[in-house]
Amino acid sequence: MNAATASRRHRPSTVRGALDLSVTLVTDAGLCGLRGVTAVVSEAVDGGVRVVQLRDKAAGHDDLLRQLEALATAIDGRAALLVNDRVEVAAAARERGLPVHGVHLGQGDTAASVARELLGDDAVIGLTANSREHLAALRRMPRRDVDYLGVGVIRPTSTKPDHPPALGIEGFARFAAEAELPCVAIGGITMADAAALRDAGAAGVAVVSAICAAPSPRDAAAEFATAWGAR
After folding, report:
1. Which of the residues 2, 7, 47, 127 has an alpha carbon 20 to 30 A from that of 111?
2. Per its UniProt record, what InterPro entries does this chain match (predicted)?
């Protein structure tokens, strides 16, 4: 497939204004095991995952690009595709015409303002935040720079051993009430937490091991989607 064909086939769609954050899958190659990340993501999107965030701290630039191309094919427009941290990879993927919708940034990563300039106004930019200091910094930033916040951890989790103190659902609720952006809860979340977090003001939940390590990623994703939508 030549570059022109790839650009027509994989041109990023504009999802920034209508992003469904309800169930986000953050990938973990180790937890996906022999099945591989692409197979797990395909099943999870079948089950109801609406945002896929490719996170692979060990992968190089070219490897991440190959992973994004495989994920874009597997997702086939059914979910938004984000890159964790690596703004330059997201920019390169978008230049190739791959449907990569944006990035999720940590506090120590590329500044959101830089990411916005590199990726453009239609890109989705998420930012990890979990303290009053983070909220104060956000209020000093242009509103255009960040679209949503990843807030956690809710409970201690082995997938992020250096995580800050757990917020719990009540702590999340207090944070979300002060935030001026949609907040996605992350960190140690189980299906039993989904409805409570929604009621606490979450725009969605982000999960890693509960889907990546599940015997059936499709079933696990479907259960999260059902739990999120239950009234």
Report:
1. 7
2. Aldolase_TIM, ThiamineP_synth_sf, ThiamineP_synth_TenI, TMP_synthase
